[in-house]
Amino acid sequence: MKSPDASVPDSGAQATEGSNEPQYILVSRSWLEQLEKEKDQLKDRLLRALAEWDNARKRLDREREEITRYANQELFHSLLPVIDNLERAVEAAQQATSLQPVAEGLRMVWKQLQSVLEEAGLQPVEALGKPFDPFQHEALGEEIRLDHPEGTVISQLRKGYMLRGKLLRPAGVVVAKSPEEGEGSNVRKDAEG
Prior knowledge:
Structural class: alpha+beta
Distance between the termini: 96 Å
Number of strands: 6
């Protein structure tokens, strides 16, 4: 781009110092047209960049939606053999004359399911015999016990699970409680009662 000074004709009219009269700069028509052309080119480049950015954002949104939709595809693929084996176990149970083979088949399917879920990052929350932890356990009840310290989990009513270190569901537990004065008659001294 040319400097405006380069195309300003010398008019010989110069404002005097301290004068309040406006100063005018004369520019050539070609220089003005060149500035207009450059402005249009920059505007076009800006619009193209904005359109590219918008298209990239839309593409990323579609890809994110696709990833979310099929995120568990690998897990479900791993579960298909477990489903097949459960179907076989149900069919065998309908024809079985003894429950022993059915129970053994179900145990095998259960172990297979646990293995698949463990591989996917699912771990059970340890609860029984541990101190009550409100971040991993949900107290569903209390029981007065002398054979366990107060606050110890003495029974697990529902398993809790963690997925890659994040709690999915707390374990539902019963917690040992110390007897208060006068409550000695209902106290359990052992786990069997």
